[in-house]
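User: structure tokens for this one?
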Amino acid sequence: MIDSPGRINIIGEHTDYNNGFVLPTAIDKKIRFKFKKNGSLTACKVYSTNFTVGFEIDLTKVEVSKNEWENYILGVIFEIQQIRKGLKGFDCVLESNIPIGSGISSSAALECGLAFGLNELFDLGLSTQTIVELSQRAEHNFVGTKCGIMDQFASVMSKKDHVILLDCQSLEYQYVPIEIEPYKILLLNTNVSHSLASSEYNTRRSECEKGVEIIKEKYPEVTSLRDVSLCKLHKLKNKMSSKVYDRCLYVVEEKERVLNSVEALKNNRLKELGDLMYHTHEGLQHLYEV
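Assistant:
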């Protein structure tokens, strides 16, 4: 049995696929997986108790499905098959108390929990970082969402009473204690659902990449918005559409907000942390438009 958690992100929204910094941690909402070997070489069954639906998989024919949720499973199996032999027939039952489409990474919990469980069940020898990376590839290649690494990393690597300062370029990370007494973080489900695969997510990513292309013409050393300062961005404002400029401006400013938030947390400057979070939400609303 494997429990795979969802996550929150204190600050650093939409910076992971721009090679920036993020500050996530896992939460107590999770997907529970029950695995068993079924004695077959290639036949697998996966069943969701939440949706009272399941499907069968032939390990010799792992292909993209027309049913979106199946692709999270199929993508993980496919990516494991690219790097390890030894995967055989299994049965899996999963049950989730993560609200679907609520923005707390039910998809990453699904991918990582499946990968972690199969690694344990068949003794595949995958490291935690490999599980994180192959789960991200599964979402890219089978689901079609060009997500960053944050969600999968937080689901697998989180530590109790800490947040993770993750450098999404190098994947270096450090655990930062989150001591906010007498306050608490309240997670509310607004019941407004979204799906990354069918949302503007990939559009936002392509807009940021367009900005990088323009910046590279003057600064060829730039490979992502991680490498861009406010000064460089302002100099090229007239070369970009207002929409692309706004997207880039938000990301460049957010990069600094994450690092400032870590210092505020470490020094118990909670009002400063709150102000930075408000600035992030304003940027998301008015510059990034999400």
